[in-house]
Amino acid sequence: xxxxxxxxxxxxxxASVGAAAEPALLPDRIGPWQADGPxxxxxxxxxxxxxxxxxxxxxxxxxxxxxxRVEDRNYKQGDQTWAVRVWVLGDPTxxxxxxxxxxDPRLSKPTPVGDTVTGGAGAFLTGNxxxxxxxxxxxxxxxxxxxxxxxxxxxxxxxxxxxxxxxxPVKWRVFGTERYVQGPAGFxxxxxxxxxGAYAGLANHVGFQLNAEAILARYQGEHGSGVLLLLQYPNPxxxxxxxxxxxxxxxxxxxxxxxxxxxxxSLLSLVFEATSEMHAxxxxxxxxxxxxxxxxxxxxxxxxxxxxxxxxxIFLFTGLFMGVATAVGVAFxxxxxxxxxxxxxxxxxxxxxxxxxxxxLSGKKIDPSDMY
Length: 372
What we know:
Elements: H1 2-20, E1 29-30, E2 33-35, E3 40-43, H2 44-51, H3 59-65, E4 67-77, E5 80-89, H4 92-102, E6 108-111, E7 114-117, E8 123-126, E9 129-135, H5 142-153, H6 164-167, E10 179-181, H7 184-193, E11 213-220, E12 225-232, H8 236-249, H9 252-256, E13 261-264, E14 267-272, H10 277-285, H11 307-342
Antiparallel strand pairs: 1-2, 2-4, 3-4, 4-5, 5-9, 6-7, 8-9, 10-11, 11-12, 12-14, 13-14
């Protein structure tokens, strides 16, 4: 028993040493930027204890998204400094939630390396890693951001992002207002960030405990605007159930302003603050979501052979059967004749085994062996 306890302690020490020895994600150099010290790594627990008061993204969102660890490193180029932070999430879905929480429509713009915050800091997403930087005075060049992104991508989990990301319409969308959430904390923060805090209480009725997902964005068209909320459920039955829950929770004031819940298979859609019912429907019509019902029946992948091929095979196998039958017949008959010649009356047609009925119409004496 004592040896077993010692073995467990040893395994725990080896595991802790292996975790501590894990190489840093952030490189020593990023283009012209040189690290001014080693990277600092915090576990999720350590990070929450030290940075829970950090406003963006909030600690609750990080916990909801599945934060694993955080890595910080400072870089210098002349008198310029660049503080880089990487959040490591359990999967790309959680990383996408944290990344969208960082976006700000006033500071964000599309770039070849993802979304970059222009106020002297960079932010991008790659796999399950979210990078956010703060610069002392100027915007980080795109080539330096691309160098860092390439270095991090090698170490990132490249499984797909949530499909709900692709359902959000692109037309009329205000860049930087996208918010993907998979829990109540993220939902409330997303609604507040888009000016819909009055509806943040819907977080308790969405059904996140049943694996529901949500994504929001603000839309601004030529003739109106609105905030689109998409909710995806594992199956249409759950979507229908929560459609009624949400309709009951929407206030009378919200319904007067035209907020309605519509379902399409497993997807629910709501449009808040729409300038008109027509514009709300126009936003819904742009949702890139189509349902497919498939039925996989058993089938043969081989095609029917041609008539010529069938005829050749018929004649071939018929001839083969006839040849085998003839050969067997000749072999049996020949063996019988040879044995009768070598051993007449001893193997085949022995007199004591032959019984022949004869009428005896002639005067010839009846001979049982007279068969021929």
